[in-house]
Amino acid sequence: MNRLVYGVIAAMGIVAAGLGGYGMAGGAGTLRLAWLVPLGGLELTLDPLGGLFLGLIGLAAAPASVYGMGDPDGGGRGRLAYAVFVASMCLVPLAANTMTFLIAWELMSLASYALVLHDRESEESVRAGWIYAVMTHAGLACLLAGMLLLGAEVGSQRFADWRAAAPALAPATRDLAFVLLALGFAGKAGVIPLHVWLPLAHPAAPSHVSALMSGVMIKLGIYGLLRVSLDWLGVGPPWWGATLLVAGAVSSVIGVLYALVEHDLKRLLAFHSIENIGIILLGIGSAALYRVAGLDALARLGLIAALYHTVNHAAFKALLFLGAGAVVHATGTRNMEAMGGLIKRMPWTAGCFLVGSAAIAALPPLNGFVSEWLTFLALFQNTRLDAVGQNLVFTLGIASLALTGGLAMACFVKAFGITFLALPRSDAAAGAHEASPPMRLAMLTLAAACVALGLGPTLVVPVFGSVAAAILKTPPSATGGDWLTLRVAGEFASLSTAAIAVALAASLLVPFAAFWILGAARRTRAYETWGCGRIVQTARMEYTATAFANPFKRVFDFFYRPSKRLDIEFHPESRFFVERIEYENPTRSIFDDWLYRPALELLQAAARAVGALQSGSANQYLAYILVALLLMLVLA
Amino acid sequence: MTTASNLLAFLGLVVTLLIVWRQSWPARLRLFAAQSLLLAALASTVGVLAQRRGLLLVAAVVVVVKGLVIPRVLARIGSGAPVRPITPGRSSGITLLVVGGLVVAAYVIMLPVTSSVELPTEGAIPLAFAMALIGLALCVTGRDALGHILGFLVFENGIFGLAILATYGLPGIVEAGVFLDVLVIVLIMEAVVVQVRREHDSIDVDRLRELRG
Hints:
By secondary structure, chain A is mainly alpha-helical. In chain A, 69% of the residues lie in helices and 4% in strands.
């Protein structure tokens, strides 16, 4: 039964991917069922951007479902919610009017809420679900307000009509609609400071769902931001693009900073989703700014970078979440400090996780490198803009992207090293076992996708180029270069990941060739690993994740504001002998302390003030009715 | 017709004021029955004079439901309660003053209606509306569940009178629905009140404060 359901969903994903590919290739189609839904009817339209996201959802849902088939503790419960989740996500990029969109959007949120509450006994899950529900509905309220505002101003709830009427709207209306819609979509995308739900909700769900939530669902927030900033509202003022760019810069750096000190494997990945959303936003923001300035080729480049990174992030983040799920299932914990040595026990998972880590850390020749390189290219060419303020914003984007790249590298050295290398730090890790065949198949597929997207940018970029041209309404240009080399920025730069791959592979052979030329002895001697002179080597002597993160904690002290707690229990006989040491070094979230807590306190104070009306006296309540009736009659 | 409707509506208002004034539960109940019968008389008068046969049937239903059944049920509900819910000495003077103000308010509010409508019954419209407002006021000042029920019924009677005076009766299906509603509400309230009394030995609304969250 389990296998059947997940198999059907995987097949559905492949069909969706096919449909999406048809849409990307320029195929268009509209489905109208006016009787099905009130206020405008159900209306679905396939266009290149919608097709791209539909294809992305389908291609991510297929391996995630295959993984779900083999996941012994993730299956069973929540199958229906999972099916609804995937189906509603497929509807979102196709929706062509407000009602259809909001219904699909809300279904997606509710189904994922049910999946976050997978482990109903855990207090942590319940809290995560609660915060997720609050944030997602706050976002929905913003979307609803923005869409109704636009609908009322334009006089139609259809997105196609908005597109036609937007340039004629009053600037204030457009700005307000942009702010409301962007807030709603940014909340779903996990843009800082609206990210609080993300690191709680994603780890709480079963791993194949986390993979979809992180890989695809938050991308629908990006989809919305693309529609708002580039499509529905026409060409906006420069501050729209600048806002997106700054939000991207802040999200990328802060996301990776939080990830660096996180020792819960799945939460670490969730924080990296925030970082990658930031990188995508850098591309979108630059596209919006270039478009206002009339630099169409650069706008297209920024958008290609954003779309490419969207797809890449879906591939490697889904892969990493599936790998983390396999690890969590094998060891029974999400705490990295209790792992270690898994590479010998789970070689397949470790290999796939390594590919994902290298991809997310933007190492060539994998896919993360290509899209981050494209983003850099888009940002670096801001010198062609003639506005100092905008140039400064771009510089901020470049600096934060560079910092993010370095920190992400460090973070995945930690994530992979502590989890998979060295000796097992717990009995559970020592007794870990390899993932089941369907889980391995899913991970291998995604790892192959990471490699393919990295090696084949010359094939992929023209496809994204045509999608970008369709949104920006510019003629598709002859971007590309030849089959080997990618030339998207004129004479500014070019890239050939295939050549890099060959060079890297060749450099691996260099030592062997050197040995051969020098005629050195190739006799293998087996001997113990050098242990720094220690006689025994135990897991307690190993480098821990906390220790790895500590230098960063010190450098970014102003941001983490860590508090330190050191508990030492001395031996009763002498202070020179220690029985037990406990060291804790938790960080505090500036967003919780300075944004959400004051806001919630204000809300509670307001609720208490209004609560004075509620005296508990039935007579008083009836008097409210009488007074309201009289006032209404007298004033009307 | 004008004289008859004015007289009946005036008498109805007087009875309503008496309900406000009286404190003893059996007396208020009798006054409510009297008010219902007056309304039935009003309905049949209008029915005869305006050639609306349907109103005669409505009047008959009013006599049965509001004149007989509901007072009987209310008497059953109130059988265990003290005859006077408030201690002697606290009169209903202030309430009567407020209610007087409501009658004035009813005239003010209905001014645009009466000046635009050309009906022989227009003079009685504010009187019926005042009955409705006083019913709500009775709800507000009610000290126990019985007072609330009675206030609601008086309010409903006022609306009924208003409907007869302003439009010569509502469509039959609406009228039937309203009667059924009122009857069901009274029956439900009977069950609730009996339950509340069994649990708390009292039906004083002040005890509801304990439920506040």
